[in-house]
Amino acid sequence: GAVVSQHPSRVICKSGTSVKIECRSLDFQATTMFWYRQFPKKSLMLMATSNEGSKATYEQGVEKDKFLINHASLTLSTLTVTSAHPEDSSFYICSAPDSLGTDTQYFGPGTRLTVL
Amino acid sequence: AQSVTQPDIHITVSEGASLELRCNYSYGATPYLFWYVQSPGQGLQLLLKYFSGDTLVQGIKGFEAEFKRSQSSFNLRKPSVHWSDAAEYFCAVGGVSDYKLSFGAGTTVTVRA
Q1: Contacts of B105 in chain A (CB under 8 A)
Q2: pLDDT on residue A97
Q3: Fold entry, domain B3-112
């Protein structure tokens, strides 16, 4: 089946720094990708929709200046957590819909961000 | 607004026993319903999905789920669990072709020998 990768798998950074997380669709093209955030023992929360060639669409309550999303190509979306703080520590997961129109989404393995 | 409730936070089941995970949803139109499994270090894997048609859906790894519109439920079942079924299970609801998913809080399944 289709594969979505994320890099890095885990990152530790100091408070105030910015961190970039990459999401790649490895064997299919994705004009749309999604970014989720998952807190420990909690559900996944949709943060934003990443659109290739246009601006991302953010869910209510998500700071677009804090979480910068760039969908540079049909296989790559990046999430940059700017000026990270400890409360941004979380598990970030991306997904991409199947390009064959099967209404199936493929999820990346996630990135564990820890902000000290 | 769409939402999903998974009433059971944690379920422990003996290997070989049956398993049922509950899922209730709230959605204003015809929902697309999904069950995903998440194992440590791995991405969410789709177990099965319901869009329309037969309300009993067969998935991978021996799982099945039944859509009951009258009860707004989409419960997941497996007749005989294996130790490898220990994982986190998420029910999700989405709209037609917008791909946005709302997830339940998840149910952790522990399998004891």
Answers
A1: 42-43
A2: 87
A3: Immunoglobulin-like (2.60.40)
